[in-house]
Amino acid sequence: KLERFDIVLTVLLAGWVPSILMLLISYTTLKNTLESKILRDRQTFVQLVAHLVDDDLASTASIISYYQTLPDMERLFTAPNPQDAAQQWIVARFFSYPRIDGMFIASADGNLLGSLPAAPNLVGQPFHPEVWKDGADGGSNAYVSPVHHRQVDGRMVTDVVAAIRTRDGKTIGYIGASILIERIGRRLSSISFADKAHCQIVDQAGFRLFTPDFKAEIEPTTPTEAKLISDIRKEQRGHLSQGGNIYSFDPLESAQWLAIIHQPEETAYAPVQDLLRKITVPAGWLIAGTLVAAIL
């Protein structure tokens, strides 16, 4: 009996130890390694999305920054009729830039001098300076504003605005360009996202730019969404798990915006679970078969 017990024990150890070690490694080291790689891949992807959106903003900002420093701009504001001069200046240049959806020039107090689309009924009135004026005044470079309704037609846009200053630093006016959110959405809609993955861009005010089908969002952010966005803003870059979803996010370079991709954790880590199942099932059969062989 003792000899048979030794044989059974030897068979069990020979079959069970490798299997148990394989399962232990699979559910610790291998699982963590694969999940880390998935997170790295997600971070790379969200960075690419951020760069795609940033490309529109950066190219427009470079155009506005170029005109910001031209001597012509200072002469425009000192012309006998700056409103006519501003409108003519915009008409002469706007159509050279197909990726700009609107252009405007405003006085030092934020009142409209000229724009395209044209808005003669708004000339001389405040051109939503509360959205962009403080940002443009706060730096020497072009400022990307939060998303808002364009006064001319009500469409959702962001304004890229720069202050026009004299040599002594006095602000004499502003030049700005508008980018339609729906056009940015059309570019993003051409991307193929993973199963159940959703992409979102959030501006500096915490407003979501898009609906799930990449149309311009017009509904306000809910308190729950605002709390989540606030948590993401604190991190700026990385991953966050909440409510059964995993959120990967990265900031844009040209604006105080964030690109966010979220997906159910179960779906995001499905390849890992599938692999673990493929390892567990044969290991379980091997353990069971070893036990039967040892007993018989």
Topology of helices and strands:
Blueprint: H1 2-68, H2 71-77, H3 82-93, E1 102-107, E2 112-116, H4 129-137, E3 143-144, E4 148-149, E5 156-165, E6 171-180, H5 181-189, E7 198-202, H6 223-235, E8 238-242, E9 245-251, E10 258-264, H7 265-268, H8 270-295
Antiparallel strand pairs: 1-2, 1-6, 3-5, 4-5, 5-6, 7-10, 8-9, 9-10
Main β-sheet description: 6 strands, antiparallel
CA radius of gyration: 29 Å
Number of strands: 10
> CA-to-CA gap between the ends?
14 Å
Please state the structural category.
alpha+beta
**Shape, principal axes of CA atoms:** elongated
Q: Count up the helices.
A: 8
Helix content: 40-55%
Q: Beta fraction of the residues?
A: 15-25%
Oligomer classification: single chain
- String of helices and strands: HHHEEHEEEEHEHEEEHH
Brief summary:
The chain has eight helices and ten strands.
Description:
It is a single chain. By secondary structure, the protein is α+β, with helices and mostly antiparallel strands. It is 50% helix and 20% strand. The strands form 2 sheets. Strands 1, 2, 3, 4, 5 and 6 form a 6-stranded antiparallel β-sheet that branches. A 4-stranded antiparallel β-sheet has the order 7-10-9-8, sandwiched between helices. Strand 8 and strand 9 (245-251) form a beta hairpin. The model has no long low-confidence stretch (mean pLDDT 88).
